[in-house]
């Protein structure tokens, strides 16, 4: 995957790495956008008759994130489904079209995510559609933005939420190019509008040591599924 930059050259996504396994026969790709986030799909051949579908998106740093580990599964999940050898079609209600030219100006809806359709092999063949939740979502969070302000031994988290949801943050420690997951901090049910949330700089009951940390705001449904993420914000604790 590559993207056009400044209208005059292409740069590779995912650090130049392929999104599918190099030793597998992948084909019939598709692409769509939800806001400014690209989603792609493809079919892998696992044998003469076994075809599996894959969908994923790119995060705000250009790294590929799989939304279908091991292949597309039914809901509730059982195992990867065998599909017909046809494109896993992607679509979205929030594309940056030639009229708006802005993927952040979409209206929140019942499903704030891209979605894919696929047909299972065997008899009878069955057609399904699933939402690809969990990516950066500038429909739920204004411009996908979160600000974190430090005040002594606590922090204030500032963002704008376009729908009422349960929210929380993910905390990663950043050391150069290395990022290590520290944990998650729930922040409770929040109404849509301006968010100003206080955080005591503790994760799993322990205060963060000095260093650089990456904070990502998340919105979740009642079952704990991640509906959308903000762009990460880096803070430094002295």
Explain what you see.
This protein is mainly β and 238 residues long. The protein has two domains: 2-132, no CATH class; 142-237, Sandwich (Immunoglobulin-like), CATH 2.60.40.10. Helix content is 0%, strand content 50%. It contains no helices and 19 strands. It has strands spanning 2-5, 9-12, 25-34, 37-45, 51-58, 64-66, 89-91, 114-119, 127-132, 147-151, 154-161, 165-175, 178-190, 193-199, 202-203, 206-207, 211-220, 226-229, 233-237. Strands 12, 13, 17, 18 and 19 form a five-stranded antiparallel β-sheet that branches. Strands 3-4-5-6 form a four-stranded antiparallel β-sheet, with no helix packed on it. It has a three-stranded antiparallel β-sheet with strand order 7-8-9, with no helix packed on it. It starts with a strand and ends with a strand.
Descriptive keywords:
2 domains; five-stranded antiparallel sheet; four-stranded antiparallel sheet; Immunoglobulin-like; 0% helix; single chain; globular
Order of helices and strands: EEEEEEEEEEEEEEEEEEE
What is the average of the pLDDT values?
90
> How far is the N terminus from the C terminus?
39 Å
Tally the helices: 0
Beta percentage is over 45%
Instruction: Return the domain count.
Output: 2
Residue share in helix: under 10%
Low-confidence segments:
none
Main beta sheet: 5 strands, antiparallel
> What's the total count of β strands?
19
Shape: globular
Radius of gyration from CA coordinates:
19 Å
Q: How does the helix and strand content classify structurally?
A: mainly beta
């Amino acid at each position: 995957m590559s993207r056009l930059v400044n209208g005059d050259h292409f740069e590779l996504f995912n650090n130049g790495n392929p999104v599918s396994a190099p030793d597998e026969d992948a084909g019939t790709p598709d692409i769509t956008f939800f806001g400014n986030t690209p989603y792609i799909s493809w079919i892998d051949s696992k044998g003469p008759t076994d075809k599996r579908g894959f969908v994923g998106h790119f995060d705000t740093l250009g790294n590929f994130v799989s939304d279908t580990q091991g292949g597309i599964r039914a809901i509730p999940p059982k195992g990867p489904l065998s599909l017909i050898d046809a494109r896993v079609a992607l679509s979205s209600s929030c594309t940056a079209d030639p009229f708006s030219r802005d993927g952040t100006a979409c209206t929140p809806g019942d499903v704030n995510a891209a979605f894919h359709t696929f047909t299972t092999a065997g008899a009878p063949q069955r057609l399904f559609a699933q939402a690809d939740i969990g990516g950066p979502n500038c429909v739920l969070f204004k411009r996908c933005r979160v600000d974190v302000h430090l005040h002594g031994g606590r922090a204030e988290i500032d963002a704008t939420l376009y729908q009422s949801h349960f929210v929380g943050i993910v905390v990663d420690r950043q050391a150069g190019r290395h990022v290590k997951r520290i944990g998650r901090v729930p922040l409770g049910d929040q109404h849509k509008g301006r968010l100003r949330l206080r955080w005591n700089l503790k994760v799993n009951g322990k205060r963060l040591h000095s260093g650089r940390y990456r904070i990502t705001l998340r919105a979740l449904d009642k079952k704990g599924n991640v509906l959308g993420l903000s762009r990460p914000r880096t803070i430094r604790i002295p």
